[in-house]
Design a protein that fits this description.
The chain is an alpha+beta fold. Helix content is 44%, strand content 21%. A five-stranded mixed sheet has the order 2-4-5-7-6, with helices on one face. A hairpin with a 3-residue loop joins strand 4 and strand 5. The radius of gyration is 20 Å and the shape is globular. The mean pLDDT is 85.
Length: 229
């Protein structure tokens, strides 16, 4: 299923990129270039949806495997910032990452944690208007483990929608940003990936005030530079 969907779609994306960039010479009509760019954008969007669906299917079937390693969250924050920073600035938002030196390295799957952060930040960006703020932070409490928080002052989510949006393909109905697009897969996929890493997920929101998402890894293994293998 994965191969049958991804292979032709990657071909569509690749060929449309060649056409849109006129790699083999001018097309002779700018409309062809515009259409090729539209095809490429639609293909990339569809590929993201397919990847999310396949990830959810793998997790539900117990076939999604994680590869834990010692992760420095400050480094992961930098990676995520480099990937979303341009989008954030183009929308006129203020985003900052907070990770003190006291936060130890943690034994987690780096790829899935980065994916979770990208999904959750994308939601905050989508539902926070220009001039708004997003804060991504990590803290370690010896008695309670590691906690990662994503907090925004966006439009918020109605209480009746909080449980529903954690189901695949569901979106908040009562939001002032009616034009916001999405598949409704980001939150349920993020929750599943967090649980796969042994963590818990909590979301709190108030309409007109913003949303707070907390990820906790109470029993995750941690280590500092002073520790030995």
């Amino acid at each position: 299923m994965s191969h049958e969907l991804r292979t032709p779609l990657n071909s569509i994306i690749g060929f449309s990129e060649i056409i849109s960039e006129e790699s083999f010479g001018p097309s002779g009509n700018r409309k062809y270039v515009e259409y090729a760019k539209d095809i490429r954008f639609a293909g990339q969007h569809l590929l993201v949806i397919i990847n999310d669906i396949l990830d959810l299917m793998k997790i539900e079937a117990g076939r999604r495997r994680i590869q834990p390693e010692w992760v420095d969250l400050a480094d992961v924050f930098k990676e995520v910032d480099s990937l979303v920073g341009l989008t954030v600035s183009e929308k006129g938002l203020n985003m900052r990452f907070v990770c003190s030196e006291e936060v130890p390295r943690v034994w987690l799957d780096r790829v899935s944690i980065r994916q979770v952060l990208l999904n959750l930040i994308a939601n905050s960006v989508k539902f926070t208007e220009a001039g708004g703020h997003i804060v991504v932070s990590a803290e370690h409490r010896p008695s309670a483990g590691l906690k990662i928080s994503i907090v925004d002052d966006g439009v918020g989510i109605g209480q009746e929608d909080l449980l529903r949006i954690l189901k695949p393909f569901e979106q908040a109905r009562d939001t002032v940003l009616k034009t916001a697009e999405g598949t409704g897969l980001g939150l349920p996929l993020s929750k599943s990936l967090i649980q796969l890493n042994g963590g818990s997920f909590k979301i709190e929101s108030t309409q007109g005030q913003g949303t707070r998402v907390e990820i906790e890894f109470a029993s995750a293994k941690t280590r500092t530079d002073r520790d030995t293998d």
